[in-house]
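Per reviewer request, we include the raw input and output of the structure prediction for the construct analysed in the revised manuscript.
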Amino acid sequence: MVTDVYSGYYRAEAEHGGVKRNGVLVKLTADSEGGNISYEVSAAFFPHVTDDDFAVSYDMYLSEVIYSAKGRRSKKKEAVFLEDLQKYIDNLSAKAGARVFWEEPLG
């Protein structure tokens, strides 16, 4: 079962395929199946050319599995992952030459 533990939109700066990206959809996702649990952080950068443009394109999608083991969802683990979410996303973004402005949520 896939569950978005957190999902949020923020202003961003990035470019991919010659298209400037001004927004990002950030997620922490839990995937539990057959006694296993994994957590993934992801960032999907999108153009966001107007205030109501939330058409997320997935051609600039960054993700990383940050935890995978036997077990089930844990509120304690999720709290720690949420606390470090910005760090995970900032590291992924830096590798792609992108930046997330955490102090500027969209919508």
